Automatic annotation (TrEMBL):
Annotated binding of GTP 1, by residue: 8-15, 55-59, 117-120
InterPro entries registered for this protein in UniProt: G_ENGA, GTP-bd, GTPase_Der, KH_dom-like, KH_dom-like_a/b, P-loop_NTPase, Small_GTP-bd
Name listed for the protein in its UniProt record: GTPase Der
Ranges for domain EngA-type G: 2-165, 174-349
Gene name of this polypeptide: der
Source organism of the structure: Cerasibacillus quisquiliarum
Length: 434
């Protein structure tokens, strides 16, 4: 998905515009269970296009002086965005900080659309011409407070989206990424894998996409490791901030079939691990929990079973994810990883036959019928798998309101028990029979 970044010095109204752009979608996103959402980053829609918006102002880099702050935010935008919305304050005119940002954006070669905010009344629009001086062509007058001018602004933004005309989803390659807190061993693990395998191609660091993906073949199967920045340690200050690493992780997750959530055996499970895992779960990707640095664990003192129990307790929403214990350093048990990735990827794309599916569900319903809610009872008429990646099922019923989540969970477990969807989330939707 195209990424739009909003930049501008403090108090020009970045967050207001951000909230306007994402509209009600944020509440939809937050409906999902178990996951803390990062407000700096959300999906938005204009006409028929969906895109991501980043509010770079939401990435706090600490107590930096104003100019350092805006410079860092502009750099994030330049690194991450396909199109940049540069916001200035129409009630204050062009300031030194605006010019500073303009210079950086100018050098970046990214498309920039200039928005002049706080143009609440038509009379103010006379002054719009002075903003041509910033050098980004036509300035768009907007009012974040009143929601004015956003349509024209977005029309212009959408025009600059890159054309994704090639299909990204190559069925024969398994793409996977590694996500996790800093220092859990992501880069070590990537290197360990790549040292064992014969790498086919490695993208050269490009000017437009600054990711390095590596493809290799094993047992007749091609795999691509999606580069997650933070593994390359470019050393910019903001790369250490949590929100920024989340942003990078989300981009990597987007491009993967399977996501490895890396946990550090030495430090144990942390709150941040759960948050990171939540993103992969929400994205509907295949998930494997990888416990790295297993070499540091004295097997007499802590067993895999104990560690697994711990993980299951902390990651209840990932009960479908298999767990792999290994050491990137000693390469112990490293060979167990690829077969699991392959299995999870297959499950993620698996389609089950409708007749078997219905037999299984109808049997389950006959043995454990739904209990009635307010005197009415759910009737299940028919089940069908509507899509893959992740596998999604529609259950046609007399009244979707009568589908209690525990019963839905029961059906999900039946499907899992029968068809073995290890490692992939599955979706079940109840629909009224037409
Ligand atoms: P990243 O930030 O997640 O990419 O983590 P790195 O790959 O840079 O690793 C962080 C530190 O953990 C480094 O000092 C590694 O040498 C160390 N490390 C990585 N994997 C292992 C492992 O399997 N065992 C041990 N003992 N140390 C490891």
């Amino acid at each position: 998905k195209p990424v739009v970044a909003i930049v501008g010095r403090p108090n020009v109204g970045k967050s207001t515009i951000f909230n306007r752009l994402i509209g009600e979608r944020i509440s939809i996103v937050e409906d999902k269970p178990g996951v803390t959402r990062d407000r700096i980053y959300a999906e938005a829609e204009w006409l028929t296009t969906t895109f991501r918006v980043i509010d770079t102002g939401g990435i706090e880099v600490g107590d930096e002086p104003l100019l350092t702050l805006v410079r860092q935010q502009a750099e994030i935008a330049i690194d991450e965005a396909d199109v940049i919305i540069f916001i200035v304050n129409g009630q204050e005119g062009i300031t030194g900080a605006d010019e500073e940002i303009a210079k950086l954006l100018y050098k970046s070669n990214k498309p920039v659309v200039l928005a002049v905010n706080k143009m609440d009344n038509p009379e103010q629009r006379e002054q719009i011409y002075e903003y041509y001086a910033l050098g980004f062509g036509e300035p768009y007058p907007i009012s974040g407070a009143h929601g004015l001018g956003l349509g024209d602004l977005l029309d212009e933004v959408v025009k600059h989206f890159p054309k994704f005309d090639h299909v990204q989803d190559e069925d024969d390659v398994i793409s996977f990424s590694l996500i996790g807190r800093p220092n859990v061993g992501k880069s070590s693990l990537v290197n360990a894998i790549l040292n064992e395998e014969r790498v086919i191609v490695s993208d050269i660091e490009g000017t437009t996409r600054d990711a390095i993906d590596s493809t290799f073949e094993r047992d007749g199967q091609e795999y691509t490791i999606i580069d997650t920045a933070g593994m390359r340690k470019r050393g910019k200050v903001y790369e250490k901030t949590e929100k920024y690493s989340v942003l990078r992780a989300l981009k990597a997750i987007d491009r993967s079939n399977v996501v490895l959530v890396i946990i550090d055996a030495e430090t144990g499970i942390r709150e941040q691990d759960k948050r990171i895992a939540g993103y992969a779960h929400d994205a509907g990707r295949g998930i494997i929990i990888v416990v790295n640095k297993w070499d540091t664990i004295d097997s007499k003192e802590q067993s895999m079973e104990q560690f697994e129990e711990d993980i299951r307790m902390h990651f209840q929403f990932l009960d479908y994810a298999p767990i792999v214990f290994l050491s990137a350093k000693t390469k112990k048990r490293l060979h167990t990883l690829l077969p699991v990735i392959r299995l999870v990827s297959e499950n993620h794309a698996k389609r089950v036959p409708t007749n078997v599916l219905n037999e299984v569900i109808m049997d389950a319903v006959a043995i454990s019928p739904p209990s009635s809610i307010k005197g009415k009872r759910l009737k299940i008429l028919y089940v069908t798998q509507v899509s893959v990646k992740p596998p999604s099922f529609v259950v046609f019923v007399n009244d979707p309101e009568l589908m209690h989540f525990t019963y839905q969970r029961f059906l999900e477990n039946k499907i899992r028990d029968t068809f073995g969807f290890v490692g992939t989330p599955i979706n079940i939707f109840a629909r009224r029979r037409q």
